[in-house]
Amino acid sequence: MNFSRSIPFSLRGAFAFSAILVVSTVAMPAAQARDARIIRDWRTPVNYQLELEPHLVAGTDPPGAGSGSGGGAGVRASFVLLPDGFLRNVNDSVAIGTGLDFGRYYGHGWYGDRRDECLHFEPGPNGTDVCTETTSYSGTYNYVYVPIVMQWNFWLTERWSVFAEPGINLYFSSHHALDVSPALYAGGRLQISRGIAVTGRLGYPACSLGVSFML
Question: Which of 31, 103, 142, 190 is a good FRET partner for 170, with 20 to 30 A between their CA atoms?
């Protein structure tokens, strides 16, 4: 397991999901502008223990041998551990999140004529090294991610909340066994009813947009 690959920022995915969230905000009633601020309250506006979030995913340059851009779908479950969070006089909460995401990546994506690189060598005869795994910039890779993150929520108004999610991603790919990569996300929710929200997430290794059900 290695963390050696650099972590790119998925600009195109970020722009796309940001645009969708902006459109969602504009479409809400004018009363949204008068939404009461609750960041200094002591309790979250939705009393829930579990957040279930089916979503679509998109990303660029996945960990391991894959490359290029791709997309798919998945689900996230976040279990509330600290409903009152870490900070006094701030409306925050803490949950542990995990789930399952599937993504299909197309190596030719945005890279043009880029040469493949060796990812792993094994000792060969007479002191030589034999390449046993390479990138595939012209190939197609399927990925399955299993995120394990800490979700730190900040409840800003009765409809808006934001969160940060540091952690790790276990992943499987078409040409690679189980491995692990770092995970880092930032996101937000727009409540459309008391127990349902539109949720967007930007970060690595993929961005997501879905619907959260607070149970």
Answer: 190
159-186 confidence digits (pLDDT tens): 999 999 999 999 998 766 788 999 999 9
User: With the CA atoms of 204, 206, 211 and 215 taken in that order, what torsion angle do they form, in degrees rounded to the nearest 10?
Assistant: -50
Whether residue 36 is contained in a domain is answered as no
Q: Could you give the CA distance from residue 146 to residue 35 in angstroms, rounded to a whole number?
A: 36
Mean pLDDT in the chain?
80
> What is the number of alpha carbons within 13 Å of residue 71 lying toward its C-beta?
10
pTM for the model: 0.73
Range of the domain at 180: 41-155+165-214
Tell me how many domains the chain contains.
Answer: 1
Kindly state whether residue 28 falls inside one of the protein's structural domains: no
- Say if CB 71 and CB 83 are below 8 A apart: no
Q: Which of 152, 160, 144 is nearest to 206 (CA)?
A: 144
Where does the pLDDT of residue 19 fall: very low under 50, low under 70, confident under 90, or very high at 90 and above? low
3-state helix/strand/coil string of 12-73: HHHHHHHHHHHHHHHHCCHHHHHCCECCCCCCCCCCCCEEEEEEEEEEECCCCCCCCEEEEE
pLDDT attached to residue 31: 43
Handedness of CA 53, 79, 44, 87 (dihedral sign): negative
Domain annotation covers residue 102: yes
Question: Is residue 59 in a domain?
Answer: yes
